Amino acid sequence: MSAPEPYRIGVVQMACGPDPDANTETAVRRVEEAVDRGASVVCLPELFRTQYFCQREDHALFDEAEPIPGPTVDRFAEVARRRRATIFVPLFERRSAGLYHNTTAVVDPEGHLIGRYRKMHIPDDPLYYEKFYFAPGDLGFPTFPVPGGRAGVLICWDQWYPEPARLEALAGAELLFYPTAIGWHPAEKEEFGKAQHDAWETVQRAHAIENGLYVAVPNRVGHEHGDVRGDRAEGPGIEFWGGSFVADPFGRVIAKASHDREEILLAEVDPREVETVRRHWPFLRDRRVDAYGAIAHRFIDPP
């Protein structure tokens, strides 16, 4: 049986302003531009509708959440249907009163909502107070049909863990998106900035290698204070480092954005390359699934 044909993906790196509706329309234009340039699958950055509001704990910001389906998913479903594209749409999801998730919705070229992924790993660090806003995901690690096969999506903090990427590879993904909002704390950039960025890129390239799949990472750019509808947080803010990239199944970076500009990255995903790499580096074949039971433990205490 012949492998599916290659297809082009688009990765949107964008800056986010204080007006959520304006950010949505900017994202729509970026998606349309990516499709005009040949992309059939496009992914936006994490929580693109607002500046990164998790820099503070503020109950009023729960008002920015919306149901799925809801107005933003409907907006991108119309774009997907009109442009015949699959779009990954990361959102602040209101599941019910008092229950919210950091979620990516997926709409297909017919404009149908075909599923969602809820962020599983929720950080709680200075300026990243996500546990205040988001419940951990409970949908597992699904994959979704795209023109050439299947794609998975994980969100930001998920990118530091090997298990989710492996589970999505086992579920058939040959492409893995990591919509992201990550940057430098201004007080740390000079001393630790290069090492932090290098670690971030390296760990995701490693997921591409160990699973024999493409990894595509859309990040945001710009210095933000969590300004949502004109309400700024106090403090130093975060300098989002951009650096969006796509790595192939050998871990090679085949497309990469700057650290300080809005850009659209385009890259070709070739399922035949996935097949070739997995034949020569058969990590999935050689897994000792009989020996990994302890991985489900929090920690293995010494005798």
Question: In words, what does this structure look like?
Answer:
- By secondary structure, the chain is of the alpha/beta class.
- It has one domain (7-296): Carbon-nitrogen hydrolase (Nitrilase/N-carbamoyl-D-aminoacid amidohydrolase).
- It is built from 5 helices and 17 strands.
- Strands 1, 2, 3, 4, 5, 11, 13, 14 and 17 form a 9-stranded mixed β-sheet that branches.
- Helix 1 (20-36) runs parallel beside helix 2.
- The protein is globular.
- The mean pLDDT is 97.
Set out the fold topology.
Blueprint: E1 7-15, H1 20-36, E2 41-43, H2 71-83, E3 86-96, E4 99-107, E5 113-118, E6 124-125, E7 128-129, E8 143-146, E9 149-153, H3 162-170, E10 175-177, E11 183-184, H4 189-211, E12 214-217, E13 220-224, E14 238-241, E15 245-247, E16 253-256, E17 263-269, H5 271-280
Parallel strand pairs: 1-2, 1-13, 2-3, 9-10, 10-12
Antiparallel strand pairs: 1-17, 3-4, 4-5, 6-7, 8-9, 11-14, 12-15, 13-14, 15-16
Helix pairs in contact: 1-2
